[in-house]
């Protein structure tokens, strides 16, 4: 897990381009989603974190986003994950 306020914008772009970062999340709400999610783009920088994989996000106690990851969210909500 990489905190957005602990990494420079240029280093962040490089990690995204090299697929070292594939998901973003809200540290306070414990929600993760895709990097293109409109909900994720609106969150405050100090709350934003980044993950390499879904498993990494889940290991850190995050749940899927209900907007950009609807099928995964529904599985989580129904207790299947």
SSE topology sketch:
Layout: E1 2-3, H1 9-17, E2 23-26, E3 31-34, H2 38-42, E4 48-51, H3 54-59, E5 63-64, H4 70-77
Parallel strand pairs: 3-5
Antiparallel strand pairs: 1-4, 2-3, 2-4
Structure, described:
The protein has 81 residues and is of the alpha+beta class. The model has no long low-confidence stretch (mean pLDDT 93). The chain contains four helices and five strands; from the N terminus they run βαββαβαβα. The chain has helices spanning 9-17, 38-42, 54-59, 70-77; strands spanning 2-3, 23-26, 31-34, 48-51, 63-64. The protein is globular, with a radius of gyration of 12 Å. The two termini are 20 Å apart.
Distance between the termini: 20 Å
Estimate the mean pLDDT confidence: 93
Order of helices and strands, N to C? EHEEHEHEH
Strands ordered across the widest β-sheet: 1-4-2-3-5
If you compute it from the alpha carbons, what radius of gyration comes out, rounded to the nearest whole angstrom?
A: 12 Å
Query: What fraction of the residues are assigned to beta strands by DSSP?
Result: 15-25%
Shape descriptor reads globular
The chain-level structural class is: alpha+beta
DSSP helix fraction: 25-40%
Q: Oligomeric status of the shown chains?
A: single chain
Q: Helix count, per DSSP?
A: 4
- pLDDT < 50 stretches: none
Main β-sheet description: 5 strands, mixed
The total beta strand count reads 5
């Amino acid at each position: 897990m990489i905190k957005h306020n602990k990494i420079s914008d240029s280093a962040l772009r490089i990690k995204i381009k090299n697929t070292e970062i594939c998901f973003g999340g809200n540290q306070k709400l414990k929600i993760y989603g895709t990097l293109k999610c409109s909900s994720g783009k609106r969150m405050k920088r100090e709350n934003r974190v980044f993950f390499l994989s879904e498993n990494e996000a889940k290991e850190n106690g995050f749940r899927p986003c209900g907007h950009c990851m609807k099928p995964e969210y529904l599985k989580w909500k129904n207790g299947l994950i």
